[in-house]
Design brief:
Strand content of chain B: 15-25%
Radius of gyration of chain B: 15 Å
Radius of gyration of chain A: 38 Å
Order of helices and strands of chain B: EEHHEEEHHHEEH
Distance between the termini of chain B: 36 Å
Helix content of chain A: 55-70%
Shape of chain B: globular
Shape of chain A: extended
Number of helices of chain A: 48
Strand order of the largest sheet of chain B: 2-1-5-4-3
Distance between the termini of chain A: 61 Å
Structural class of chain A: mainly alpha
Largest sheet of chain B: 5 strands, antiparallel
Oligomer: heterodimer
Number of strands of chain A: 0
Helix content of chain B: 40-55%
Strand content of chain A: under 5%
C-alpha cells in the first residue's frame, strides 16, 4: 500500500518538476522512507554523512543546493547521527538575504545548537541586523531564533530591539516579540523585570493572536506571584466571556468552538487567581456557569474545555451550583465509551474529591471498571485516584490491588512509585501490625526490594522490634513469631532483593529462637544458607554473620551448649580471610564470642535489646579509675588530639611541660601549603582503613594535622596511595564502626544503624498521622461497600448506584443535545453490561464531515469579526488602561539608561578573545565574511 | 512549560519530524525516542485488528481519515516525568510530550489542528509530504508553538508566512 502511494507521489512530483528539489534529495528521502529496518536506515545515513562531508567542501556551492544540503543535515541529526561537521554552513545560511534560505538556516541552527554553543556568537549579530529589517517576515524569523538561541549572556544584545518591536505595526511581530520576552523572563527574570508592564499592555492588544500569546508569559508570572495580578481577574473574565460569545475572528474557531486554546489558557490562569480567594472566585462564577451550559460535549475540544473548567473549579472556591455542574460533567466523562474521556473523568474525580468527598459515591462502579480495564494508562490513573481516596477502612483492598499491579509490571520507574505509595499508605493507615508486616512489607520487599528506600527496611525492623509502641508484650511476640515464620518460608525462594534479605537476617537473628519454636541450629543453618546463596553480597553476609552471632549468644547466655554447625564453621573460616574488613571483623568477633562464658556473653548481647538505647560514653569516663591508677604509677597523661596536632614533630624532643603552650612556631606557617594540603588531609583521613592500632596511631595523627612538614606529608601520601588501591571504600566503613564502638559493645556494629535510622524515621510518620484527614462515618461505610464491592454481588452494585443515576440524569443538561455516547439513555447505564453502550459509538464519518466544514468556512467572514473584535477590545481594557499606559511611558523613559548599563555587562573581552580564536580555528574568518560581525557584540 | 517535544514517527518507528522545546543531547533524544516509540507502538499493537481498516480508508481519503473513533485505548501514556499524548493518522504517529499538568484532551486536539493545518497546505497530507517538505512542517510548528506554549491556532495566521515565502520563489 505504502509503496503504491510512494509511486503515486513520485509521479506527481515528476510532473511538478519535483518541487524544485534535486534528484539526489528525492532519492535520499525515498531510500530513507523505504528503509525497512533501523540498521538499513543507519547505513543510508552514514553514507549520506560521507557524501555531505565531501560536497560541503566543494567551492561555490549554489545557494539552492546549499539549502538542500542543510535539510539533509537536519535529516542526519533527526535520525540520530551527528552532523556537527555541517553546523557552520547552517550558521552561514542565516546571513543570506533570501528569506527562505535565511529561515531555513535559522531553523537548522535552532535544531542543531543549544543556547550555549560556541557558534551562537556568530548568529547574534545576524539576529540584530534582521530585527531591524523592513521585511516583517525576516523580523519574525529572527524572533523565532531568539526564542531558541539567546541565553542569559546574550539577552542584553537584543533586548532593546525586542522591546521596540512590541509596538510593531504587524501583529505577527508583536506576538513573537512578546514570546521573546517570555523566553527572557524564563532565562533570567531579572533581565526583564522592568518590562513586566508590557505583558499587561499586550493583553489588551487589538489582535487576538497577540492577546492569546500574552497569556503564556502572564500564566508564568501569575504562577510566581498571584497577589500582584488580582486586579486582572475581571479582565480575564471579560476576555473569556467575549471569546465564548464568539467575538473573535472566525479563523480562531476550531470545530465550531471559538478559540478553544485561548479559553483553556484563560481557565488555567483563572484557576491560579481564584485559588483560595473568595471574591476573585465569585467574579468567575458567571462565566464558568455559562461554559458548562454552552460547551458541546459531543466533541473532543468541547470536552477539553469542560475538563479545564472542572480543574478551575477544583482550584477556586466554588459555588455549590458550579460543583454540581462539575460533578455532572465528570459523570458524563466516566459514562462515556471513550477511554480518553474516562481518563479525564477519573482525573477530574481525583481533583474534585478533595473539596467534595461525597462525589465518588455515585461513580464507584465506573471507577472499578476503569481499574479492571486492560488499558494501562487508565489503570494507572485510577490507582492515582484510589491513592488519593485511601483511608483506614479501605486501605487493605487498595494496597492489595496496588501490589498485585506492581508485581505485574516491568517498568521500574513506575514500580518504584507504586512501591513507595504502598509503603506510604500502609504506614499511614495500616489496620494492624500483622497485616502491615505480612502483606505489605513482605510483598513489597519481595517484588520491589531493590527499588524501595533503605529507610523503609529500617522502619520495618524497628516496627518488629518495638511492636507499634503498644505495651502488649504478648501481641508483640506473636507479631515477631509470625514475622519469623513468614520469613523462613520466603527465604527458600530464589533471588530475593538484598534489602529484604537484610531484614530477614536481622529478624531471624533477633527473634529466630526467641520463643523456642525453632532450634538454634535450624535458624543458624538457614542463615548460613543465605550467606552462601548470596555470597557476592557483602552487606547481606554481614547481616547474616551478625545474626549468627546473636543466635549463638542467646544460646550461650541461656546456658545451653553450642554446637557450631560445620557449614557455619566453614563460613566463619572463609570470612576470617575475607577481603572485606567489615566481614573479617564480624567473623573475628563471632569467634571471640564463642569462646566466652555465659555471663560475659549476656552482657555483650543481651536478649531482645535491639531497641534499648545504647549509651555511648564519649568521654570514656568508666576508664577514669584505670587512668588514675596508671598516672599514679608514672604513665604520661593523655594529650588531646588538638594539642597533639601541634606537637607531633616535637614530641620526640620536648618534654610534656610544653603541651600547655602549643608551639605554633614560624616553621609551620612557612611550610604550609594551604589548599592542597588540606584537601589531601581530608582525603587521607577518609582512607585511614586498617584497624591495626600501631599503624593507626602513626599514620592517622600526622595526617590529620595540617602542620606537618612537607617532606613528611608527601611521604605519607605515597603510602596511603598504595592503601587506597588495596582497600577502597568499604574498609572505611568498617574502620569507623570498629573505632567508634569499643570492642565490648560488639552488639553495636549490627544494631547501631537501625537505632539511628529508627529515631530519624519516626518524624515523617508522626507528621503523616497529624495530617491524616478526618474520616466521616458515612464515607467509611461507602468505601467499604465500594471496595468490598469487588467481591460482593452484582445486584448489590446496581442497587447502590441505581439510586443516583435517574436523579443525575434529570438534573443534567437535556440529553437530546448530545446524541453521541457521552449521554446514553438511562437504561443503558446498567453496569451489568458495560459493552452494550458501545453500540452508540461516535460515527467517524460524522466527525469527519464536521471537520471539513470548519476548514472550508475559515476564509470568509474574518474581517467582519475582526472589526467586531476590535470594537469590543476597548471594553476589555477599561479597567486598567490608564494606569498601564502611564506605567509604560515610565518604563520606556527608563529604557535607554538601563540598556547602556546592560550592554556593558556583556561577555568580557577575555572570553570574547577565546571565542574569536575558536571561531577562527573552525575556519571562519569573521572579517571577510561579515565585517561588522564582531564589532557590535564584542566592542 | 507545557509542551516538551513534538514527534512524528511512522509505524515502523522511524522518526519523520522531531522538535524539542528543551535541550536534549543527540544521545538523549535517541534514547527518548526509542523508548517512547516502543511504548506507543506496543500499545497500538493491541489494536492491530483495526489495521486493515485503517489502511483501506487511508488509501482513499488521506491521512485525515485515518483518525477514527476506533481508539480502544487512551491516547495518553505516562513516560518518566512526561505524559505523551499521541494520535495516529494513517502511517504516521504524532506524539506530543507534555508536562504533568497539561490538559491532555486539548493537546490531542492540538495535534489534530496541526494535521488539519498541514492538510490545508499540502492537500491530503501524507508521510511523504512531510519528508519532502520537512522545513515547511517545521515552519508551521514554529508559528504554532513557541517556548513550549501554543501561541497561534488560526490556520490563516499559521500559513500566511509560508505562503508568502512560496510566492516569493
Amino acid at each position: 500500500m505504502e509503496q503504491l502511494k510512494t509511486i503515486g507521489r513520485e509521479l506527481a512530483m515528476g510532473s511538478q518538476g519535483g518541487f524544485g528539489q534535486s534528484k539526489e534529495f528525492l532519492d535520499l528521502v525515498k531510500s530513507i522512507g523505504e528503509a525497512r529496518s533501523k540498521a538499513e536506515e543507519d547505513r543510508i545515513v552514514l553514507s549520506e554523512i560521507d557524501i555531505l562531508k565531501r560536497k560541503l567542501l566543494e567551492p561555490d556551492i549554489p545557494k539552492r543546493k546549499m539549502k538542500e544540503y542543510i535539510i539533509r543535515l537536519v535529516y542526519i541529526e533527526m535520525l540520530g547521527h551527528d552532523a556537527s561537521f555541517g553546523y557552520i554552513h547552517a550558521v552561514k545560511m542565516t546571513h543570506d538575504d533570501n528569506l527562505l534560505l535565511k529561515r531555513t538556516g535559522y531553523l537548522a541552527v535552532t535544531l542543531f545548537l543549544n543556547e550555549d554553543h560556541d557558534l551562537i556568537i556568530l548568529i547574534v549579530n545576524t539576529i540584530q541586523k534582521d530585527l531591524r529589517s523592513d521585511n516583517y517576515l525576516v523580523v519574525c524569523a529572527a524572533l523565532n531564533a531568539i526564542c531558541r538561541l539567546i541565553n542569559e549572556e546574550t539577552i542584553p544584545a537584543v533586548l532593546p530591539q525586542v522591546v521596540d518591536l512590541l509596538n510593531h505595526h504587524k501583529e505577527a511581530v508583536r506576538k513573537k516579540a512578546i514570546m521573546a520576552l517570555h523566553r527572557f523572563h524564563r532565562k533570567s527574570p531579572s533581565s526583564v523585570s522592568h518590562l513586566i508592564s508590557n505583558f499587561r499592555k499586550r493583553l489588551c492588544d487589538n489582535d487576538p493572536g497577540v492577546m492569546g500569546a500574552t497569556l503564556c508569559p502572564l500564566f508564568d508570572l501569575i504562577t510566581e506571584d498571584v497577589a500582584s495580578y488580582k486586579d486582572l481577574v475581571s479582565s480575564f473574565v471579560s476576555i473569556l466571556k467575549q471569546v465564548t460569545e464568539r467575538r473573535l475572528p472566525k479563523s480562531y474557531d476550531y470545530h465550531q468552538m471559538p478559540a478553544p486554546f485561548i479559553q483553556i489558557k484563560l481557565l488555567k490562569i483563572m484557576a491560579l487567581l481564584g485559588s483560595g480567594d473568595k471574591s476573585a472566585s465569585e467574579i468567575m462564577y458567571m462565566v464558568l456557569g455559562d461554559l458548562f451550559r454552552k460547551c458541546d460535549s459531543s466533541t473532543n475540544i468541547g470536552n477539553a474545555i469542560l475538563y479545564e473548567c472542572i480543574r478551575s473549579i477544583s482550584c477556586i472556591i466554588p459555588s455549590p451550583k458550579l460543583l454540581e455542574a462539575a460533578a455532572d460533567a465528570i459523570s458524563k466523562f466516566l459514562k462515556s465509551d471513550s477511554h480518553n474521556l474516562k481518563y479525564m473523568g477519573i482525573d477530574g474525580l481525583g481533583r474534585l474529591i478533595k473539596i467534595s468527598p461525597d462525589i465518588a459515591e455515585q461513580h464507584q462502579l465506573a471507577v472499578i471498571d476503569c481499574l479492571e480495564d486492560p488499558d494501562d494508562t487508565l489503570k494507572r490513573k485510577t490507582f492515582e485516584l484510589l491513592y488519593k481516596m485511601t483511608k483506614s477502612s479501605n486501605v487493605e483492598v487498595i494496597v492489595d490491588r496496588m501490589i498485585d499491579y506492581m508485581i505485574s509490571i516491568n517498568d521500574n520507574h513506575y514500580k518504584t512509585e507504586i512501591a513507595s505509595r504502598c509503603v506510604e499508605l500502609a504506614e499511614q493507615f495500616a489496620p494492624s501490625n500483622q497485616w502491615f508486616i505480612q502483606v505489605i512489607m513482605n510483598k513489597v520487599f519481595e517484588h520491589a526490594g531493590d527499588l524501595v528506600n533503605i529507610k523503609v527496611a529500617h522502619n520495618l525492623m524497628r516496627l518488629i522490634a518495638e511492636g507499634f509502641g503498644e505495651d502488649d508484650d504478648d501481641a508483640d511476640s506473636k507479631l515477631r513469631l509470625s514475622a519469623v515464620e513468614s520469613y523462613l518460608q520466603i527465604m527458600s525462594e530464589p533471588k530475593l532483593p538484598s534489602l529484604f534479605l537484610q531484614v530477614i537476617s536481622w529478624v531471624l537473628g533477633e527473634y529466630g529462637t526467641a520463643d523456642g519454636k525453632y532450634s538454634a541450629s535450624y535458624i543458624s543453618g538457614k542463615l548460613c544458607d543465605v550467606a552462601d546463596a548470596y555470597s557476592s553480597d557483602e552487606t547481606v553476609k554481614g547481616y547474616a554473620v551478625s545474626a549468627l552471632m546473636k543466635i549463638y549468644a542467646f544460646e550461650i547466655a541461656s546456658g545451653r551448649k553450642v554446637d557450631v554447625l560445620p557449614e557455619c564453621q566453614s563460613l566463619i573460616e572463609e570470612l576470617l580471610a575475607s577481603h572485606s574488613t567489615d566481614l573479617q571483623q564480624r567473623a573475628y568477633e563471632l569467634q571471640a564470642l564463642l569462646a566466652l562464658d555465659a555471663r560475659a556473653v549476656e552482657s555483650i548481647l543481651p536478649l531482645d535489646a535491639s531497641c534499648e538505647d545504647i549509651e555511648v560514653d564519649k568521654d570514656l569516663s568508666f576508664l577514669n579509675g584505670y587512668i588514675q591508677q596508671a598516672i599514679e604509677s608514672g604513665a604520661q597523661p593523655y594529650i588531646s588530639e588538638r594539642e597533639r596536632s601541634g606537637m607531633l614533630e616535637t614530641t620526640d624532643y620536648h618534654s610534656q611541660d610544653h603541651h600547655e603552650v602549643p608551639s605554633h612556631a614560624l616553621r609551620f606557617e612557612a611550610y604550609e601549603r594551604p589548599k592542597p594540603s588540606s584537601l589531601r588531609t581530608q582525603a587521607s583521613t577518609e582512607l585511614v582503613p586498617v584497624p591495626e592500632p600501631s599503624y593507626y596511631s602513626e599514620a592517622h595523627q600526622p595526617i590529620s594535622t595540617s602542620s606537618v612538614s612537607e617532606r613528611e606529608s608527601s611521604e605519607i601520601k605515597l603510602r596511603l596511595d598504595g592503601v587506597k588501591q588495596k582497600w577502597g571504600r568499604p574498609s572505611y566503613q568498617s574502620s569507623t564502626s570498629a573505632s567508634s564502638t569499643p570492642p565490648q559493645a560488639a552488639n553495636g556494629t549490627s544494631s547501631h544503624p537501625d537505632v539511628g535510622v529508627g529515631s530519624s524515621s519516626l518524624k515523617p510518620r508522626s507528621s503523616y498521622e497529624s495530617k491524616k484527614p478526618e474520616i466521616d462515618p458515612e464515607k467509611q461505610r461507602l468505601a467499604a461497600s465500594l471496595f468490598g464491592g469487588s467481591s460482593s454481588s452484582r445486584s448489590d452494585r446496581k442497587s447502590s448506584s441505581g439510586g443516583h443515576k435517574p436523579a443525575k440524569g434529570t438534573a443534567s443538561k437535556p440529553p437530546k443535545e448530545n446524541p453521541i455516547p457521552v449521554q446514553p439513555p438511562p437504561d443503558l447505564l446498567d453496569f451489568g453490561e458495560p459493552t452494550a453502550t458501545s453500540v452508540t459509538a461516535t460515527d467517524p464519518f460524522k466527525e469527519l464531515e464536521g471537520l471539513m466544514d470548519s476548514s472550508s468556512q475559515d476564509g470568509g467572514s474574518t474581517d467582519v469579526m475582526g472589526v467586531l473584535y476590535s470594537d469590543a477590545a476597548p471594553v476589555t481594557t477599561t479597567t486598567s488602561v490608564d494606569s498601564l499606559l502611564s506605567e509604560l511611558s515610565d518604563s520606556s523613559k527608563g529604557n535607554p539608561g538601563t540598556y547602556q548599563s546592560q550592554t556593558s555587562k556583556g561577555p568580557n573581552s577575555q572570553e570574547a578573545l577565546e571565542k574569536d580564536a575558536l571561531v577562527r580555528q573552525m575556519g571562519v574568518n569573521p572579517t571577510s565574511q561579515n565585517p561588522t560581525l564582531f564589532k557590535d557584540l564584542l566592542g | 512549560m507545557g509542551i516538551r517535544f513534538i514527534l512524528m514517527v511512522n509505524k515502523q518507528g522511524q522518526t519523520r519530524l522531531a522538535q524539542y522545546y528543551e535541550w536534549l543531547t543527540l544521545e538523549e533524544r535517541r534514547a527518548l525516542e526509542g523508548e517512547i516509540v516502543r511504548k506507543c507502538l506496543a500499545r497500538n499493537d493491541q489494536q492491530i485488528r483495526f489495521e486493515l481498516m485503517f489502511e483501506f480508508l487511508c488509501s482513499y481519503a488521506g491521512v485525515l481519515a485515518g483518525w477514527l473513533a476506533l481508539n480502544e485505548q487512551c491516547s495518553f501514556v505516562e513516560h518518566r516525568n512526561y505524559k505523551i499524548v499521541y494520535r495516529r493518522y494513517a502511517s504516521l504517529f504524532f506524539m506530543v510530550g507534555v508536562d504533568d499538568d497539561e490538559n491532555e484532551l486539548a493537546i490531542l486536539e492540538f495535534i489534530h489542528l496541526l494535521v488539519e493545518t498541514m492538510d490545508k497546505h499540502f492537500g491530503n497530507v501524507c508521510e511523504l509530504d512531510i519528508m519532502f517538505h520537512l522545513e515547511k512542517a517545521h515552519f508551521m510548528l514554529e508559528e504554532m508553538v513557541m517556548n513550549g506554549c501554543i501561541v497561534e491556532t488560526s490556520k490563516a495566521n499559521i500559513l500566511s508566512p509560508i505562503q508568502l515565502m512560496d510566492k516569493a520563489h
